[in-house]
Task: inverse folding
């Protein structure tokens, strides 16, 4: 891999490197598009903290959003992160996680 591709991969991994963000990615891989309130309900998280993480992930290009009336719906923009997370989840037996 060239240096530019390695930088992009590192950027994406840094962006999702938080339990709440990983939960959001996993959730959006199943539900495709959800509002902040829906995400909070699924993950049992506070709205302000969840909004902060969603904004950060959107700013860094991992998530996209669409607006319907007053509600903002988030979706995965870089769906390949799901493949990476699935691969990492299979490593837990080997890593004693």
Result:
């Amino acid at each position: 891999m060239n240096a530019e591709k390695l930088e992009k991969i590192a950027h994406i991994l840094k962006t999702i490197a938080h339990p709440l963000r990983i939960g959001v990615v996993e959730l959006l891989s199943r539900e495709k598009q959800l509002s902040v309130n829906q995400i909070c309900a699924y993950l049992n998280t506070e709205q302000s903290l969840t909004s902060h993480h969603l904004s950060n992930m959107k700013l860094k290009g991992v998530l996209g959003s669409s607006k319907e009336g007053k509600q903002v719906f988030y979706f995965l923009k870089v769906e390949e992160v799901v493949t990476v997370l699935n691969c990492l989840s299979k490593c837990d037996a080997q890593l004693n996680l």
